[in-house]
């Protein structure tokens, strides 16, 4: 089995946001989801570039919707691939491992 | 759909450029548009700002991604090979990045190429910006293309143009249908008095419709117009320049009274900035007569058909062409010639567009310079092309790798082209900056008398030209490395050694040959100009300009009402000037040799002789005081000079120059001959002047013009209100200026003295255009020579480097190092020799063009040709010396190992 690929922080955010949004995931709701969860405004260009890169790495798939609601310019529906899921799992595992025993210090300030 | 519902067009267009192609990119655009519509409902303005920001974010992100994309293995492979499916935009950015990286790694090459291009583009842009402002820009009048200058001609004398008489103007203005208006004007310089200090300004006496014809309006006040009650005769209009320089831009100047040549006039208007027609005019005074005032005497010439003195400017009526107008005016001139054969026989008419009339004479100068610039640009292109082919040859291995792992030949070509264009811009930017300095230098060096120089500057046209020049050069030299590319790609290059390729080598040699030929052409041209200039400098002006100071005065008619008043002024002033310590001698003359002034030839009669058919007696006319010939050291060849005894009441005398004596008295008998300019020879009351002396010729119209017949009459027997004082000293003439001013002011404190110059400077000024041309051409020739040397050096050193292995083997096998050096130098001589031959042939071929520009030297002057050829031979030796020495110093062991 091949080693899951390493993910950048922003790539993790993008992949988890796609999973959060679910079936209706296309770029604007994904952007909103990331902004909501991080509390920061996100550069839209970075999102699209990251989507392209993740797709090139095979960590997500995108497909056009069937409707023709936007003058022949479909929505780009996003879906995390099994490889993407594996990469996220891997990140999660290593993060949890690295946080072991630090809960008290990393917890929110009272 | 309301307007705000569409996203900003420019931003949307930008987005379509940067977005990835295919449906994913389209969907991104749609995402943005969807959100834009949503935001529009709240605030269209904020939505537009948001959309721009979003597009900027996307552009930056994608631009960054393409330039600095993460180097995953897939990416690297794509970069090296040039992905077959990649979009043009994407591959362009790759090429750009690749080119910049390459240039950074070869700083020597980049520096030389950039400098070469900067020189070429900078020189071309400088010259273009001057030529554009002077020759091409329209005049600052509404529909300026419809303005024409109308001249009287003498068809028998070719392109000769002359001024018209008052009645001619009145007839033409009345009868012609070709113009919506025809105005007349005459330059009159005015003494302005009544202020702090008398001032002399260039002015114009005009007909009242003058401003209406030009279509100009006033910045302040109201311009005189034909319907004005007094025809504006008591008014004066100031130019913006005079208003600023002499009246401190004071709006209160309107209504002020100025004393102009002794008569009061009220300021009624100030013109807008930049309006000064003809150039340099500072004030405009409507004439009190139906025609402009005459320059020297304030008399009405509206019925004097014999005195030509005024210029005409007209505005073509709708639908009338210049040719049609000229045809009509010619018919009018012919009718006039039939009606008044005494004064108008053999006269015609000429209509020329105003711009052509102003700058037509300058075209040859600019064509010479533009030609030189074109050559220079070609040479820089050739040079860079050569550097690039050399570079391409060095990069054969790299290019071969690219091709072998799958890049198409077209893709590699596109990349080489990108590099060329990038290089062009690397040179273009400093070139443009260089042109800013170059333009300023050109304006500074330019001789007086080139119109519209003040408007020279950088504008969008100049910027556009620089851009175009950059692109064209980039594409031109970018073609060079393409040659031989196919051999590289198909010959399994990975295994071959680095020999440079047959066709590419041929091209490199060819470029050097062409470059040498073109530079030689420029050097020959510059050499001929230099010799022309030296010939003119050495030409005998017929006078001795050293130690002579000159200054002009113009007496006002109001104050000096008759000849006696003028004579006594000149006598008294000369007496005081001669008393200045250090002054050896002094005199006056109507117009100085080689000095710009309105001059003309006049008909005269010889007692007892009639002119042969078609050959009138014509001569220049000068009025001189005693002491004039001695002061300028114009030799008296026969008889005597004008003397103090030639008073008003003494017998009338005249002195003629040698050209006049030879032309009209070829067999002798000039002394004692009797001539007159004014009277009718048949009339017994006519007063005849006796020729009492012959003096040497002076270069009246410039050193390069043959001397014309010239007569001199004594100041006391025909004084003029305009004159020039000349005085001779053993010291620096300018040191006498204050004393001269003082001496004249003692006689008339209201009289401005102007145009104080040393005679030497006047002679130098007369050569200013030639000097300008010579300087420019020398500058270009020097640059071309430098570029040719650089090009030669590059090619020779490359071929030496290529042959290091061969040279090493030769030395190992016992060849003498001298013979190795000899072979290198001989090779470079072969190319240079061919270039020199071609260059000399090209110079010979263009001898007719050159002939019109040279003086005192043949356009095929063998000395100049030989010197230029020798110069290039020396340059060839110098350019090949370093590579040759390097070849001789090669260590055989290392050399043989070199691949």
What does this entry look like structurally?
The complex is a heterodimer of chains A (110) and B (899). Chain A is mostly helical and 110 residues long. Chain A has one domain (9-106): Orthogonal Bundle (Arc Repressor Mutant, subunit A), CATH 1.10.10. Helix content of chain A is 55%, strand content 9%. Chain A contains five helices and two strands; from the N terminus they run H-H-H-E-E-H-H. In chain A, strands 1-2 form a two-stranded antiparallel sheet. In chain A, helix 1 (9-21) packs across helix 2 (27-38). Chain A is globular and about 55 Å long. The model of chain A has no long low-confidence stretch (mean pLDDT 83). With 899 residues, chain B is an alpha+beta fold. Chain B folds into five domains: 3-68; 91-141 and 380-496, no CATH class; 155-346, no CATH class; 497-539 and 764-899, no CATH class; 560-749, no CATH class. In chain B, 51% of the residues lie in helices and 15% in strands. In chain B, the strands form three sheets. In chain B, strands 15, 16, 17, 18, 19, 20, 21 and 22 form an eight-stranded mixed sheet that branches. In chain B, strands 4-5-10-7-9-8 form a six-stranded mixed barrel. In chain B, helix 13 runs parallel beside helix 24 (768-802). The chains are: A mainly alpha (110), B alpha+beta (899).
